[in-house]
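User: Structure with iron/sulfur cluster, tokens only please.
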Amino acid sequence: MNATVIPPFARTYRYDAIDREFLAERIAEFRGQVARRLAGDLTEDEFKPLRLMNGLYLQLHAYMLRVAIPYGVLNAPQLRQLAMIARRWDRGFGHFTTRQNIQFNWTKLEDVPEMLEALAEVDMHAIQTSGNCIRNVTTDEYAGASPDEVVDPRVYAEILRQWSTLHPEFTWLPRKFKFAITGSPSDRVASLVHDIGVAAKRNAEGEVGFEIHVGGGLGRTPLIGRRLYDFVPEAEFLGRMEAILRVYNALGERDNIYKARIKILVRDLGEEFRALVDAEYDRMPQQAYRLDPEIVAAIAAHFAPPPFARLEDRPLPQDPAFAAWARASVRPHKQPGYASVTISLKPIGGIPGDASASQMEAVADLAERHSFGEIRVSHVQNLVLPHVRQEDLHALWQGLAAHGLATPNIGLISDIIACPGMDYCALATARSIPVAQRISERFADLDRQHDIGECFINISGCINACGHHHVAHIGILGVDKRGEEVYQVTLGGSATNDAAIGELIGPAFGYDDIVDAIETIIRTHIAHRAPGERFVDTYRRIGAAPFKEALYAVA
Amino acid sequence: MPLLEDGRLRPDPWASVDDDVPLPDGPVILGLEQLRREAPALARRNAPIGLALPPETAPAEVAPLLGLLSLVALRLPKAKDGRAFTQARALREYHGFTGEIRATGHVIPDHYAMLLRCGVSTVEVPEGADPAVWDACRRVVDIGYQAALSADAPLSLLRRRLRVA
Amino acid sequence: MSSKAKSRPATSPVVFSGNGLRDGRVAWMGTEGRWEPRLGAVTPFAPEAAAEGLALAQQGERQQRVVGVYAVELGADGLPLKFRERLRLGGPSIDAEAA
Ligand code: SF4
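Assistant:
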């Protein structure tokens, strides 16, 4: 296999011959599984978990391949290859997800081994992007760039990725298992609503350790994770994770799918869960599971800072259109003279998270020109160029605008998260994408969006909550009511340090009324807000009553 | 049912015995209740004894009995029910069990290598199973990224070359 | 995906649907027993014949042709009653290519 030349400064984990050999073997294994399925040697019930562990779903209209973007980090050749795959095996598009992955919606089973080979050419794969196993670990899209970072979470995300890859004991878990890891005190990864949320930090001596929350999650039973450990020393990191997974694999519910996530076990066992995990850890031959400092150092070398130039922070140009974009999209960087840029995949009326092949190529080019060839995928379905010189921002903005990638709406009401919903997803009870499109069109006016201020709307097409609606300021859940699509609205959720599950505001709205309902909610906020107050703050201060009144009083 | 060891079929000397039938001569695999009830008498038996450990029972619960046993049979009630992987690993790692660990139930070739890495020694395979398919599945991926119980050769970082025999 | 058992007997004409094993694309089957990409190409079963139709459809699963077959009830206009099935018939309600 010809490995593509990776730009020298893109800080992705660099595969060596061993990693490439592993990927080739894994593809051979999947090729064999497909052949056995087509020959009838594997039943669909047997094959389904195998294909899921290779990211392959059967959706409403076709197979969907979900490709892993480990912790959301990509280099330019990888993004170009994704564009090639979108053209060759999909309809010229890819769909970025809240798990920092990318999905191709129109694939054929018989083409998948070849697609996996194309991915392997750029050291990518679809391993464990689905199935009842440890999924792609997510982290902060500003890792290595954010001024408030204490520990680089990519290092430990990569260690978790390797450790969980085809883990012999944890590949047939009761249910899927999701890690998120942050390395900064400000939680941008929603760590409290993951099966395991890891906050990497440092003690007074400067040593790395991990605060561990376990049993958070959304879906039918939304729960905030419980703190299991305050500071797990680095050397014990993998051993403690083993211990948690051992308890879960042994005791997690196996029959009722709605009770099979670890959050239910943690909730039901309470303090006893901690005792069980401690007991596992204490019996373990700890030496065998110790995380060696040399291994950490070797992996950390992959994520060394790129060769930043010595620059000063500088004022940005005055051009009003540029300034509006910069205000929404540009974020401070820890290196003077640099900035991180979020690229909106939420054009007004567009499909949240979709990018065309030519847009992907354009972003790859711009990343090479302005960001050391590095790109990130954010969990709100946007892209990020982590390390851009401030002096390049104007040129970058023009480059993005030429490809419809400069919508200045990051963090605003039209920066909507939406799962695929019933337009693609076999599990859906209602559509989500067209609801997102119509809300975005209703609030198209940018001055109005800025006036409303930071406001997160998340939409899921069923109770599985892939759109994270529970933790949105305004959450929308599509359900089926006697064959009609109706939409429940929750208010006041949050996915950050003050994580909270939104509260259901009242009866659901029809497909034709949901946009008006959102409009009413926003008008109510505007009428009651204190100066500078965000929607969620107003809601927390005044409570649900004024919103209920405005939404339902008329009848 | 045919028995697979080290990628090949081999004769199975063990008989699985239902409770309340007289024990045949030779190696027998008993249920948990019978083993518990008759442990004192069984200790004096000459032929080897095995236990069919139910998926919901932690090996720790049978630790005092392990000294009697030459075999523990684990069961996958469904192909996607992986409790046996944790049971096998615990038997070897926590309890130092050195006898045969057998995987039974809905085992598919794609489990094979991982079962071996968790300490399983033999697999009951369906009638007519082609051992070549099982053997190929066992060998296809021979790199692992984590500690396990097979005799793996360390490579750099977390990686090791698997010896899944 | 295994076939979902229908809890309620059909009261309207039914066809059977599933996805092609190889290509994943939507397929329809009627009294002819053939799997077709177009609903219009198949003849619905009478409601009383739904059980017999299901048996025929499941043969398609056993022959590695289709996956996840189930009955789809049709209305007087010959189109599926359920919104979900109309979406499967027509493709996504949104136009990705237009972006
Ligand atoms: S939330 Fe439901 S509809 Fe949306 S992608 Fe997840 S499973 Fe599908």
